[in-house]
Amino acid sequence: MTSHVLDLAGAGIGPFNLSLAAQLDSIPALSVRFFERRPTFAWHPGMMLPGAEMQTSILKDLVTATNPTSPWSFLSYLVTHKRFYQFLNAEYEAVPRKEFADYLGWVARGLTSLSFGTSVREVHAADGLFSIATDDGRARARNLSVGIGKAPSRPAWAERLPKSIAFHSSEAATRLGDVKAPRVAVIGGGQSGAEIVDALLDLNAVSSVHWISRRPNFEPLDATPFTNELFTPGYMEKFHGLPEDLRLIHTRRQVLASDGVSSSTLKKLYRRLYERKLDKPGKPEHGISLRPYRDVVEATRNGSEIELTMRNGFDNSIETIEVDMIVLATGYRFVLPDFLQSLESRIALNSIGEPVLENDFSLVWDGPSENRIYVLNAGRHSHGIAEPQLSLAAWRSAVIANSVLGQPFFDLGQLDPIVQWETQGQPAALSSHLGQEAAE
Ligand SMILES: Cc1cc2nc3c(=O)[nH]c(=O)nc-3n(C[C@H](O)[C@H](O)[C@H](O)COP(=O)(O)OP(=O)(O)OC[C@H]3O[C@@H](n4cnc5c(N)ncnc54)[C@H](O)[C@@H]3O)c2cc1C
Ligand SMILES: NC(=O)c1ccc[n+]([C@@H]2O[C@H](COP(=O)([O-])OP(=O)(O)OC[C@H]3O[C@@H](n4cnc5c(N)ncnc54)[C@H](OP(=O)(O)O)[C@@H]3O)[C@@H](O)[C@H]2O)c1
Prior knowledge:
This protein is α/β, with parallel strands linked by helices. The chain is built from 13 helices and 17 strands.
C-alpha cells in the first residue's frame, strides 16, 4: 500500500511498462510504482516454444535507444552474467526469445518500483488524482500508465467451439504437450501460426497438420532497410500527424512490416517439408497440408470432428476439411481494461473504438490535463505499426518520462529521416484535369 501520492502508477508489467520503469529509474525525483498480476515476470509464456527467436535486434532493448548508459541494457545484462564474449561468439542472426525473456526478468528483479502478484482492479479520478484499487490496497497517483498488453483475438466462427478443442496460440506452450488429436488445423499465417506448425511437426500424436492462412501466401516479414524506416521515431511522429483515414489505410498496407513471418522460420519450415518429401518419395500424404488464401467462414462440430468451411481466394471456390483440433493463431486486439470502466464515458475513441492517443501516448479524456493516462500497445492506428513492437519501446518510454516530468530529461532530437515522406512546404492543389484523372 502506497500512502503518499505517486507521480505515476503503472498497470501491468510486460516489456512496455518495464521499459518505462527502467527509464524512470534514471529520474529518482519521480515517485512511481507498477503493479503486475502475475507472481513474477513472464513474457508471453504461452508462446515460449523450443527454438523461438526474436524478431528485433538486442539493441532495441528496454533503454538503449535513448539512454545508453542505463544499467538496464541488454549489454549490461550480458556483462553481469559474464556471457559477453560467448554471446558475440555465438553470432546469432536472431537471439533466442528465451534469452531476451531472461534479460527482461533480470531487469524486473532489479527494479525496486515493481509490485508482482497485484492486479489493478479499479481506477477512479477525483480531486486531481487517480485512486487505484489493487489486490494490495489503494494507491493515489497523478498519472497512470496502462501497459496491460492485448487480448487474444478469437474469430466469431470459433466462439461456439469449446476451448478444449479450439485454443488460442497464446496458450500453445502449455496445450501442445497434451495434444492427442491426429488432425490439427492451425488458423493464422503470422509468426505465431508458423511457430506452432513447426512445433506440431515434432509431435508423434499428430498425423496431419493443416496450416490455413487468409493471406494470399505464407508471407515474409519485411525487414529491409527502407521498410525499417517505419520503425523510427521520425516516421512515427509524422505518421501521428496524419488524418485518421490515411493512418488506417497505411497501417493495413504495412502489415507485413510488422506481422509477416521471419524468413528464417519460413526457410526452416520449407526445408522440413522438403526433407519429408526426400524421406517418403512419391507419397502424396506426408503429414502437412498448406492452405493459404483460405478464409475460414464456418466451423461445425460433427461428433468429435470439426468441419471447417473455407473460401479459397486462389480459385474462388468453397472447400471443407475435417479436423480433430484447431489452434487459433489469429492474433491479438486492444481492449479497454475493466479497471477503467468508471472513466470509459470520458475517454475519446476513434472510428474503430480505440482510445485517441496524443503525441505523448496519453489518451484524450475530459479530465484535468495534468492527469494523464498513458496507454502502451494501443497505438497501432495512431502512431503506426511500430507501436506494438519492441523497436521504439525505449524511445516511447523516454517520451512519456519527459511528459510526466514536464521537461526534456531525455534528449529526443532526431536526425532528418532518409526518406522524404511528406510534401514539403504548402501542398499544391491538383489542376482540375489531373484531379479528375486521380479520382478515376
Ligand atoms: C509471442 C510473441 C513474441 C513477440 N516477439 C516480439 C519480438 O521479437 N520483437 C518485437 O518487437 N515484438 C515482439 N512481440 C510484440 C510485442 O513486443 C509483445 O507483445 C510485448 O510483449 C508487448 O508488451 P506489453 O507490455 O504491451 O504486453 P504484455 O507482454 O502482454 O504484458 C502485459 C502485462 O500486463 C499484465 N496485466 C494485464 N492486466 C493487468 C491488471 N489488471 N493488473 C495488473 N497486471 C495486468 C499481464 O499479466 C502481462 O504481464 C511479440 C509478441 C508475441 C505475442
Ligand atoms: N518469435 C517472435 O518474435 C514472435 C512470435 C509470435 C508473434 N510475434 C509477433 O507478435 C505479433 C502477433 O503475431 P501473431 O502471429 O500472433 O498474430 P498476427 O501477426 O496478427 O497474425 C494473425 C493471423 O491470423 C489471421 N486471422 C486473424 N483473424 C482471422 C480470422 N477471423 N479468420 C482467419 N484468419 C484470421 C490473420 O490474417 P489477416 O492477415 O488476413 O488478417 C493473420 O494471418 C506480431 O507482430 C508478430 O510478429 C513474434
